[in-house]
Amino acid sequence: MKISYIMQVYLGEYPGSRSDSDKKFLRAVKSFINQTDKDSELVIVSDSCEITHKLYYDNFKDNTRIKYVYVDKDVPNMYDG
Fold it and tell me: Helix, strand, or coil here: 57?
């Protein structure tokens, strides 16, 4: 049985919320990789964040347990007016 994890990262509006966001992202993904359950996968969905895009391709693109979805925020979606 394959288990998929969705890891939501919310960096809300509070002092220091955006500090070291790249390090927080890397630490979270590496934590998933180090888990013992090898039948699971991680889905990363980027809302056009270039930092997330670069970090994924520089560090995790060859990991078959990690799927990456890039959502272009400039393209209208089906929920818009």
Answer: helix
Phi-psi region of 20 (alpha: psi -120 to 50; beta: other; left: phi over 0): left
Query: What does residue 12 show for φ and ψ, rounded to 5 degrees?
Result: -65, -175
- If one counts every other C-beta atom within 10 angstroms of the C-beta of residue 44, the result is 21
User: What is the C-alpha to C-alpha distance for residues 60 and 8, in angstroms, rounded to an integer?
Assistant: 17
Percentage of the chain surpassing pLDDT 90?
31
Among 54, 57, 32, smallest CA distance to 43 is for 32
Task: Give me the residues of the chain with pLDDT under 70, please.
Answer: 1-18, 76-81
Sign of CA dihedral 9, 77, 3, 44: negative
- DSSP structural state of residue 36: S
Run of H or E including 46: strand 40-46
